[in-house]
């Protein structure tokens, strides 16, 4: 009952409220991004939603327009050379994720759920299939996010996503949300670049071939 009806009601209510409340911040950050570097305010990227359907996820742009596309930042050798000045602040504070409120409002995403995979993260998608984690809406944050985020290898991340599928409830979503706030304040679980974890590299981490999709290119 919760997952079918009440969860969506909460998503709509909180996303609408947040959109109104944060509209001044939206405006300020949009202006700062445009002043800081050439390019659009929003970064649009093809992601995988419920039942493996594609959707376009929104973020505030934190990197230069010449950054390689469709590759997770934690797989770059030197991501810092691509990150803009305002982008460093947005990424550290997770404010770059705010535009996903729009994705939640139009039902591409939920507030809590597995983070939406890139369309070419095939290993992660296959692991999530084992747990039914591709059959629910992806989230702004989720159980895997608060238990390691970028530090987790693919098989562990998918297992956490599967655990979330089994435990979905109002109280569990509330726990995920509150722990996300705490982790964001601490900056916990954010990994920028492959060089950080080369000593402890895990063979199950999905290294993704760079591909460019004309339909996703930003003007």
User: What's the β-strand tally?
Assistant: 4
Would you list the SSEs in sequence order as H and E? HHEEHHEHEHHH
Query: On the 0-100 scale, what is the average pLDDT?
Result: 84
Radius of gyration: 17 Å
Q: What percentage of amino acids are in beta strands? A: 5-15%
Q: What is the molecular shape?
A: globular
Major sheet summary line: 2 strands, antiparallel
Distance between the termini: 42 Å
Strand order of the main beta sheet, please?
1-2
Structure explained in plain terms:
This protein is mostly helical and 219 residues long. It is 42% helix and 9% strand. It is built from 8 helices and 4 strands, in the order ααββααβαβααα. The chain has helices spanning 2-21, 23-36, 85-93, 100-105, 122-129, 143-146, 154-167, 170-186, and strands spanning 42-48, 54-60, 110-112, 139-141. Strands 1-2 form a two-stranded antiparallel sheet. Strand 1 (42-48) and strand 2 (54-60) form a beta hairpin. Helix 5 (122-129) packs parallel to helix 7. The chain is globular. The model is unreliable at 194-219 (pLDDT under 50).
